[in-house]
Amino acid sequence: MLVEDFSAERVKKMPDMALQGQEDYNRLRPLSYRGADVFLLAFSLISRASYENVAKKWIPELRHYAPGVPIILVGTKLDHPGAAPITTVQGEELRKLIGAPVYIECSSKTQQNVKAVFNAAIKVVLQPPKQKKKKRKGQKTCFIFITHDGVGVPETLLNQMFGREGQESEEGISLLISRKLLKLMNGDVQYLREAGKSSFILTVELAASQKLIA
Fold first, then answer.
1. Is 36 exposed, middle or buried (0-12, 13-18, 19+ CB in 10 A)?
2. 134 located within any domain
3. For a tag on the chain, would you pick the N or C end, based on fewer CB atoms within 10 A?
4. pTM for the full model?
5. Among residues 208, 70, 88, 76, which one has the least CA distance to residue 141?
6. CA angle at 39 for the pair 38 and 45, rounded to the nearest 5°
7. DSSP notation for 170-186
8. Could you give the C-alpha distances from 181 to 142, 158, 184, in angstroms and in order?
9. Is residue 180 over pLDDT 60?
Protein backbone atom coordinates (compact mmCIF):
# COMPACT_ATOMS: atom_id res chain seq x y z
CA MET A 1 0.00 0.00 0.00
CA LEU A 2 1.30 3.44 -0.86
CA VAL A 3 0.42 6.46 1.26
CA GLU A 4 1.36 9.80 -0.21
CA ASP A 5 2.15 12.56 2.25
CA PHE A 6 2.12 15.71 0.17
CA SER A 7 2.66 17.97 3.19
CA ALA A 8 5.92 16.19 4.03
CA GLU A 9 6.71 15.43 0.37
CA ARG A 10 7.42 11.81 0.99
CA VAL A 11 5.88 8.44 0.19
CA LYS A 12 5.80 5.53 2.57
CA LYS A 13 5.35 1.95 1.49
CA MET A 14 3.45 -0.41 3.75
CA PRO A 15 4.29 -4.06 3.09
CA ASP A 16 1.51 -6.56 2.34
CA MET A 17 2.01 -10.04 3.77
CA ALA A 18 0.55 -13.01 1.87
CA LEU A 19 0.66 -16.02 4.17
CA GLN A 20 -0.82 -19.44 3.55
CA GLY A 21 -1.95 -20.58 6.99
CA GLN A 22 -3.30 -18.94 10.13
CA GLU A 23 -0.55 -20.55 12.20
CA ASP A 24 2.15 -19.16 9.89
CA TYR A 25 0.43 -15.78 9.86
CA ASN A 26 0.35 -15.56 13.65
CA ARG A 27 4.03 -16.46 13.83
CA LEU A 28 5.27 -14.15 11.08
CA ARG A 29 2.95 -11.17 11.62
CA PRO A 30 5.09 -9.59 14.39
CA LEU A 31 8.02 -9.40 11.95
CA SER A 32 6.18 -6.65 10.08
CA TYR A 33 5.98 -4.48 13.20
CA ARG A 34 9.68 -3.73 13.24
CA GLY A 35 10.46 -0.13 12.32
CA ALA A 36 6.78 0.95 12.31
CA ASP A 37 6.10 4.64 12.97
CA VAL A 38 2.37 4.30 13.59
CA PHE A 39 -0.30 1.60 13.66
CA LEU A 40 -3.81 1.85 12.24
CA LEU A 41 -5.75 -0.51 14.50
CA ALA A 42 -9.15 -1.13 12.94
CA PHE A 43 -12.26 -2.92 14.14
CA SER A 44 -15.69 -3.40 12.58
CA LEU A 45 -18.47 -1.21 13.92
CA ILE A 46 -20.93 -4.01 13.21
CA SER A 47 -18.97 -6.72 15.05
CA ARG A 48 -18.85 -6.90 18.82
CA ALA A 49 -16.13 -9.58 18.66
CA SER A 50 -13.95 -7.35 16.48
CA TYR A 51 -14.35 -4.49 18.97
CA GLU A 52 -13.47 -6.66 21.96
CA ASN A 53 -10.41 -8.13 20.21
CA VAL A 54 -8.77 -4.69 20.14
CA ALA A 55 -8.05 -4.82 23.87
CA LYS A 56 -8.08 -8.60 24.23
CA LYS A 57 -5.71 -9.54 21.39
CA TRP A 58 -4.18 -6.70 19.39
CA ILE A 59 -3.14 -4.21 22.08
CA PRO A 60 -1.19 -6.80 24.12
CA GLU A 61 0.54 -7.96 20.94
CA LEU A 62 1.43 -4.46 19.72
CA ARG A 63 2.61 -3.33 23.17
CA HIS A 64 4.82 -6.41 23.38
CA TYR A 65 6.44 -6.26 19.94
CA ALA A 66 6.33 -2.50 19.33
CA PRO A 67 6.18 -0.62 22.63
CA GLY A 68 5.87 3.14 22.35
CA VAL A 69 4.59 3.19 18.75
CA PRO A 70 1.44 5.38 18.55
CA ILE A 71 -1.87 3.81 17.54
CA ILE A 72 -4.75 5.32 15.57
CA LEU A 73 -7.98 3.55 16.48
CA VAL A 74 -10.32 3.13 13.49
CA GLY A 75 -13.93 1.98 13.39
CA THR A 76 -14.81 0.62 9.93
CA LYS A 77 -18.07 -0.06 8.06
CA LEU A 78 -19.57 3.31 8.91
CA ASP A 79 -21.79 2.85 5.85
CA HIS A 80 -24.05 0.42 7.77
CA PRO A 81 -26.37 2.82 9.67
CA GLY A 82 -28.58 1.18 12.25
CA ALA A 83 -26.70 -2.12 12.04
CA ALA A 84 -23.72 -1.06 14.12
CA PRO A 85 -23.75 -2.40 17.71
CA ILE A 86 -20.73 -0.24 18.56
CA THR A 87 -21.55 3.40 19.28
CA THR A 88 -19.22 6.38 18.91
CA VAL A 89 -19.20 6.74 22.69
CA GLN A 90 -17.99 3.16 23.07
CA GLY A 91 -15.31 3.80 20.47
CA GLU A 92 -14.09 6.81 22.44
CA GLU A 93 -14.11 4.76 25.64
CA LEU A 94 -11.90 2.18 23.97
CA ARG A 95 -9.59 4.89 22.63
CA LYS A 96 -9.04 6.20 26.16
CA LEU A 97 -8.56 2.70 27.50
CA ILE A 98 -5.75 1.78 25.07
CA GLY A 99 -4.19 5.25 25.12
CA ALA A 100 -4.72 6.04 21.43
CA PRO A 101 -4.49 9.76 20.57
CA VAL A 102 -7.21 9.59 17.89
CA TYR A 103 -10.39 7.60 17.14
CA ILE A 104 -11.99 7.88 13.70
CA GLU A 105 -14.96 6.09 12.14
CA CYS A 106 -14.80 5.55 8.39
CA SER A 107 -16.16 3.63 5.40
CA SER A 108 -13.97 2.27 2.62
CA LYS A 109 -17.09 1.74 0.52
CA THR A 110 -18.20 5.38 0.53
CA GLN A 111 -14.70 6.75 1.30
CA GLN A 112 -16.15 8.71 4.21
CA ASN A 113 -13.35 9.82 6.56
CA VAL A 114 -10.79 7.56 4.85
CA LYS A 115 -8.54 10.52 4.07
CA ALA A 116 -8.94 11.72 7.67
CA VAL A 117 -7.56 8.40 8.92
CA PHE A 118 -4.33 8.71 6.94
CA ASN A 119 -4.03 12.43 7.72
CA ALA A 120 -4.27 11.58 11.42
CA ALA A 121 -1.57 8.92 11.03
CA ILE A 122 0.74 11.35 9.24
CA LYS A 123 0.17 14.00 11.91
CA VAL A 124 0.95 11.56 14.72
CA VAL A 125 4.21 10.55 13.03
CA LEU A 126 5.30 14.14 12.36
CA GLN A 127 4.00 15.51 15.67
CA PRO A 128 3.99 12.60 18.14
CA PRO A 129 1.88 13.13 21.28
CA LYS A 130 3.75 13.88 24.48
CA GLN A 131 4.15 10.97 26.82
CA LYS A 132 2.42 11.50 30.16
CA LYS A 133 5.19 9.83 32.10
CA LYS A 134 8.15 7.62 31.33
CA LYS A 135 7.86 4.07 32.54
CA ARG A 136 10.51 2.76 34.84
CA LYS A 137 12.81 0.02 33.62
CA GLY A 138 11.10 -3.33 33.88
CA GLN A 139 7.62 -1.78 34.06
CA LYS A 140 4.95 -3.36 31.87
CA THR A 141 1.26 -2.77 31.20
CA CYS A 142 -1.02 -5.74 31.80
CA PHE A 143 -4.37 -6.03 30.00
CA ILE A 144 -6.95 -8.46 31.43
CA PHE A 145 -10.16 -9.03 29.48
CA ILE A 146 -13.13 -10.70 31.21
CA THR A 147 -16.47 -11.54 29.58
CA HIS A 148 -19.39 -12.88 31.58
CA ASP A 149 -22.78 -13.92 30.21
CA GLY A 150 -25.63 -12.60 32.32
CA VAL A 151 -28.10 -9.77 32.68
CA GLY A 152 -25.38 -7.15 32.80
CA VAL A 153 -25.35 -4.16 35.16
CA PRO A 154 -27.91 -1.40 34.45
CA GLU A 155 -26.65 2.13 33.79
CA THR A 156 -28.34 3.47 36.92
CA LEU A 157 -26.68 0.86 39.10
CA LEU A 158 -23.29 1.52 37.51
CA ASN A 159 -23.51 5.16 38.57
CA GLN A 160 -24.38 4.05 42.08
CA MET A 161 -21.59 1.48 42.22
CA PHE A 162 -18.87 3.84 41.01
CA GLY A 163 -20.02 6.92 42.88
CA ARG A 164 -18.14 8.61 45.70
CA GLU A 165 -20.31 6.89 48.28
CA GLY A 166 -19.30 3.46 47.03
CA GLN A 167 -22.03 0.88 46.64
CA GLU A 168 -24.88 -0.03 48.96
CA SER A 169 -26.17 -3.04 47.02
CA GLU A 170 -24.44 -6.42 46.99
CA GLU A 171 -24.91 -6.65 43.21
CA GLY A 172 -21.63 -6.02 41.39
CA ILE A 173 -19.53 -5.97 44.57
CA SER A 174 -16.63 -7.79 42.85
CA LEU A 175 -16.50 -5.16 40.12
CA LEU A 176 -16.45 -2.36 42.69
CA ILE A 177 -13.67 -3.99 44.69
CA SER A 178 -11.63 -4.59 41.52
CA ARG A 179 -11.94 -0.92 40.59
CA LYS A 180 -10.88 0.27 44.04
CA LEU A 181 -7.86 -2.07 44.11
CA LEU A 182 -6.78 -1.10 40.60
CA LYS A 183 -6.91 2.60 41.50
CA LEU A 184 -4.48 1.90 44.34
CA MET A 185 -2.19 0.28 41.75
CA ASN A 186 -2.57 3.19 39.27
CA GLY A 187 -4.73 0.98 37.07
CA ASP A 188 -8.28 1.20 35.78
CA VAL A 189 -11.27 -0.93 34.86
CA GLN A 190 -13.45 -0.36 31.81
CA TYR A 191 -17.02 -1.70 31.72
CA LEU A 192 -18.37 -2.45 28.24
CA ARG A 193 -22.17 -2.49 28.42
CA GLU A 194 -24.17 -4.93 26.34
CA ALA A 195 -27.56 -6.58 26.90
CA GLY A 196 -27.11 -10.05 28.34
CA LYS A 197 -23.34 -9.80 28.72
CA SER A 198 -20.88 -8.02 30.97
CA SER A 199 -17.36 -7.33 29.70
CA PHE A 200 -14.53 -5.88 31.77
CA ILE A 201 -11.08 -4.76 30.66
CA LEU A 202 -8.63 -4.33 33.52
CA THR A 203 -5.36 -2.46 32.97
CA VAL A 204 -2.51 -2.12 35.42
CA GLU A 205 1.18 -1.29 35.20
CA LEU A 206 3.47 -3.91 36.70
CA ALA A 207 7.08 -3.31 37.71
CA ALA A 208 9.58 -6.13 37.99
CA SER A 209 10.94 -6.57 41.51
CA GLN A 210 14.51 -5.32 41.88
CA LYS A 211 15.48 -7.91 44.52
CA LEU A 212 14.01 -10.93 46.19
CA ILE A 213 12.64 -10.71 49.71
CA ALA A 214 13.84 -13.54 51.93
1. middle
2. no
3. C
4. 0.57
5. 208
6. 145
7. STTHHHHHHHHHHHHTT
8. 15, 17, 5
9. yes
Containing 201, the helix (H) or strand (E) segment is strand 197-207
> Both 64 and 40 in a single domain?
yes
What is the C-alpha separation between 179 and 137, in angstroms, rounded? Answer: 26
- 15 residue type, one letter: P
Question: Are 100 and 165 within one domain?
Answer: no
Residues 115, 44 within the same domain: yes
State which residues form the domain around 97. Answer: 2-126
For the stretch 97-110, pLDDT in tens is 999 999 999 999 99
Number of domains in the chain: 2
Q: 125 phi and psi, to 5 degrees?
A: -70, -45
Task: Give the domain-ending residue among 68, 93, 126.
Answer: 126
